[in-house]
Amino acid sequence: MEYKSPLPQRLLEARTRKGISQKELGIRLGMEPGSASGRMNHYEKGRHSPDFPTLKRMADELDVPVAFFFGEDELSAELICLIERLSIKDKKKLILELTIKP
């Protein structure tokens, strides 16, 4: 069974939500203006995958955690974003609440 990476779709979603073009995102990441749109398009089409440092810069620029790009479905991706916004204390509390069985 072949699995498709969720990264291309998540990248497209995050960029669209932020309201910026492929070219603008690429330029913000330090890519040459002439190739920025093409490189970003390759990432969004799944032809190429960014290395981790590039992925981290993308996440920072798009205001999402890196793990968002790997959410297997939309709900999981959104939960990743919500959990990332919690304080350490609240994350620990959530873990306890979810692991305690009645």
3D shape: elongated
Cα distance spanning the termini: 37 Å
Whole-angstrom Rg: 16 Å
Share of β-strand residues: under 5%
The percentage helix is 55-70%
The helix count comes to 6
Report what the structure shows.
The protein is mainly alpha-helical and 102 residues long. Helix content is 66%, strand content 0%. α2 (22-28) crosses α3 (33-45). The protein is elongated and about 60 Å long. The termini are far apart. The relative contact order is 0.14.
Helix and strand topology:
Blueprint: H1 7-18, H2 22-28, H3 33-45, H4 52-62, H5 74-85, H6 88-99
Helix pairs in contact: 2-3
Question: Keywords for this structure?
Answer:
102 residues, mainly alpha, 6 helices, 0% strand
Summarize the structure.
With 102 residues, the protein is an all-alpha fold.
